[in-house]
Records
---
Amino acid sequence: MLDKERVLSKIDELDRYLFELKEVVPVSFAEYQKIEKKRSCERLLQLCIESVIDICKLFVSGLALGLPSEENDLFNKMRKKEILSQEMVIVLKEMRGFRNILIHEYTAIDDELVYDAAKEKLTDFNKFKTEILNILKKVEK
């Protein structure tokens, strides 16, 4: 059974990270070059993405959608049950790949890409939340 309270708690966590990210992301790329700004943005983006993945794990396990072979399989299982749109699955797979770069390849991080994500991609998280909250309403019925 889907633990709606845990899902909502994870959504709250995501909201907190997004709020913090909006507070620290600088107006200019030049200001972003300060090490504390770069690391703060990188870490908060990572935490946002991990919150999204955790929400997906709660859905897959709570609705008994099967054992995912990898994180991308979480998204595919949710798509198959029409929990997520195809467009959102594509976005989530890109997020997961971006998170992996942030975690595993610090020397290869493209600062402009991270800065752009912190400035321009936050709407993807809100679209995800909308899809999840709409499904939660349906599950309650």
---
Amino acid sequence: MTFIRNIENFECAKCGFFVAGNGFTNHCPECLWSKHVDVEPGDRLATCQTLMEPIGIEIDGGETYILQKCIKCKHTRRNKVSKDDSYDRIISISKPAN
């Protein structure tokens, strides 16, 4: 897998927050939602183009990841947590459902 770096700013399609991209930004730091736009990271080849919901947190090798699931096709992926991500939102999705 070859990562393709795309520096893109975007308005979150879920909450409307303006996100200044850095080439590695792939989700909204406010609500943690993203869009299903890639087949491989950065390629923009996914045809789905639907919102991806943050559904949990995973820790692997000392790194923390946001687990996301496409609300249309159910594709899942994980994205590294960024220093700019909402800590409160990360905590809220890391709790088990009641």
---
Amino acid sequence: MYIEVLKSKIHRVKITQAELHYVGSITIDENLMDAANLIENEKVQIVNVNNGERLETYVIKGERGTGMVCMNGPAARKVQVGDIVIIISYASMAHEEAKVYKPQIVFPDHNNRLI
């Protein structure tokens, strides 16, 4: 049996840009991606703390060290610059493996920098 478990989480990061007329996805500072063990094109769930919106998209690498978190495409309507979001990815794994798996959880500061 395989189950879905938390793989990675960037907890309470600030939206720095919202670009409606873009192909889609969320652009994330590469430092945050590395710390959370996220890769480009990985599917993620976005949870907006400010308004309760939840959506799924995929990750695009943002410029390293900028603190960029940009919601792109139609999903840009679901956020405002300055909103706090949680970025979550999940993995499918065997039940026994899931019991011992430790997810990567990142708690950035108020400027989206690693603490």
---
Amino acid sequence: MTTLEHTAARPAKETDTRPFAETAETGGKATPKRQFLRDAEAHVADTGHRSFVRSALGGYYTSRDTQKARYRDWEHARDAASLAKWSAVNRLDELLEQFASRFEARGGTVHWAANAEEARSIILGLLRKAEAKAIIKSKCMTSEEIHLNAALEEEGYGVVESDLGEFIQQLRGEPPYHFVFPCMHVRRDEISTLFHDNLGSEPTDSPEELTMIARRHMRQLYVNADVGITGANFLVAETGQISITENEGNARLTAALPKMHIALVGIEKVVANLDDLSVLLPMLATAGAGQPMTCYNTLYSGPRQEGECDGPEEMHVVLLDNHRSAILADPEQRDSLHCIRCGACLNVCPIFKNVGGFTYGTTYQGPIGSVITPHLRGLADWNHLSGASSLCGACSDACPVRIDIHHHLLHNRRNAARTAPNWLEKIGHRLFVVVASRPWLFRIAGWIARHTMGLARRLKPPLVREWLASRDLPSPPAESFRTAWRRRQRSLPSPSQGSPA
């Protein structure tokens, strides 16, 4: 056992966060849809948890609106940010090659991974080459996407998360609750108990002291680690640099102290130049955390150069596709690749605030996660997420790069209807099209529905059973809307009679 493994507490419980589609044997495990419905039902009933999350987000709304008001024109800034990402995504092939050539000119190495398996294989190969024994890792949602920690631990490597929120979640044996605020659902007293049980610290209610407990524990781990793994918020093609933005400084230590630095980055993170980066960084801070700028914004150009006092001896960037090219090929939903992972859409989503982050069962929660997860993991198993939306449009209004999120959810619903996973759903969708497109048939169907609602409530046939599991079937109206409208029209005075005195 390595020094890092000795000092890092193991998870309190094992949580399988692999995507359903990657599980070789389900062993009777519920489908993602059924699991979502069960978890949502349980979470909605936990009013204390929901109240705590809403209270936590209340402070975010105040800070965000304060910072937005400091912009001369926030909507114009959104236009500029959207244009920067649109330009980059539509020149993705060109900009990625430009980034790779300029990064490698400074001594770095770029690896191209088509999928999660290739990315894990590349990183494991680098660790074996470095004869690594201990790994420190900063916040990287792309690593959550490919389930990197589980793969490394299966190979016997000790991995410790250096981001405070991620570290807390690691100790709890849970995935991140929110991809910007990983432990936003955890109360202060729970963190104190967690640190007392795993790190031997004294109980405290002070946020500052809790932070210092984690900091004291981490310091030696940075020194002991052979390899540091990070993500990146942006790739700058013009200069061949990766940009990392953070509030704790842990990513800087993760990148600077170990001998090898590995950055795992999705290919959509590229931007053309530093001018575009200067627009996106403050937008990310304002929309994501209600800050004018995050505390630490660092550009990394490659491994340590001659005369430099710190930095890794080797630096590798693993560029991950993992179905992003498929989204790029879809002109209708291509702009979902513009996402800068600020989390603003989660923070305003009424569904997220009611069902919580774990219910989604995915790496990326909330509205944007519901858009991209069916592309990343398969529409057949994950189309239910697109239905987990009120379509209120708050997500689209909050997005700093103007992704039309709620319309993408509608696109996914349409695509899911075309590829319904079972024959009952397929028949149901086709019958609805036939009936809804023929007014006379629609009237007959309405008459039948009004006279059979009571029977449906008692028998719960397959097509409505799941719907009725979480909803009450209303009492049928005494007459159709058409009948009521005709009766109303007959009761009105004719134009020739004029208005009553």
